[in-house]
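__Record contents__

***
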Amino acid sequence: MKKKFSAICILISVSLLLVGCGSANTSDKTVSVVGSSSVAPLAEYESENFLRVDKAIEVDVQSVGSSSGIKAAIDGTANIGMSSRNLSEEEAKELKEVVIALDGIAVVVNPNNKVKNLTKDELLAIYQGKIRNWKDVGGDDAPIVVISREEGSGTRGAFEEITGLEIEKNDKKYTTVFSRAIITDGNGSVKQNIALKKNGIGYISVGSVDDSVKSVAVDGVLPTEETIKAGEYLISRPFLLLTKGDPTPEAQAFIDFILSDEGQKLVKEHNYITVN
């Protein structure tokens, strides 16, 4: 009886050990990708197609903003961070970056707005509340409704840095965006506000532009693949994947897929700019 009991105990122990090992292997095969709400839709699209190539690796994409993604990569709470803004000097010391796509930030208005072009100075003045009526920039006699993004948004960070809305004092950065600006989360929410408010102005990722809004030229240049790749369109930025040191083999496999011909084809299908 004792021998039978001992045998049963051994079998149970071995079974538990095998279950434990199986769980660890499953965990190792999951790649967590965390960060920019602009990069996230592209990363999800890539992950769906990557699954066809390697069914053993699961990719979990979470949209929490560029700053949070950078922090997650530095802290090691994510395998890969996503950012839609350039890294600061301090952040760059901590992380390795890979550019997977280029993106322009389109300045958008309601399709019925007759303004087709703004200079950089006019755009800056509008967002600082110094120009408040469309008639002052060639539009109708109507108050301008300024729409911006939430704190931590990579799109906002890039937009403010490039246009000069962000200033630095005593080693700290401050925004000069008009205090009455409507602050909203995500490209979709900006588009919705523009569609509903005929006098609104906002900015979104070029890949998110559709018929609900109209892109405005900046200094006479519209955001297109050609103008962004050539560096002619002022408000453009890279889409970055970030790792703390060398990525895990699974994370590297996902990055390699995005940079492959197939992965870059998906970048183009998603209306972003390829890197090769």
Remarks:
- Confidence is low (pLDDT under 50) at residues 2-27.
- The domain at 104-237 is CATH 3.40.190.10 (D-Maltodextrin-Binding Protein; domain 2).
- Residues 121 and 173 are 20 Å apart (CA to CA).
- DSSP finds ten helices and twelve strands in the chain.
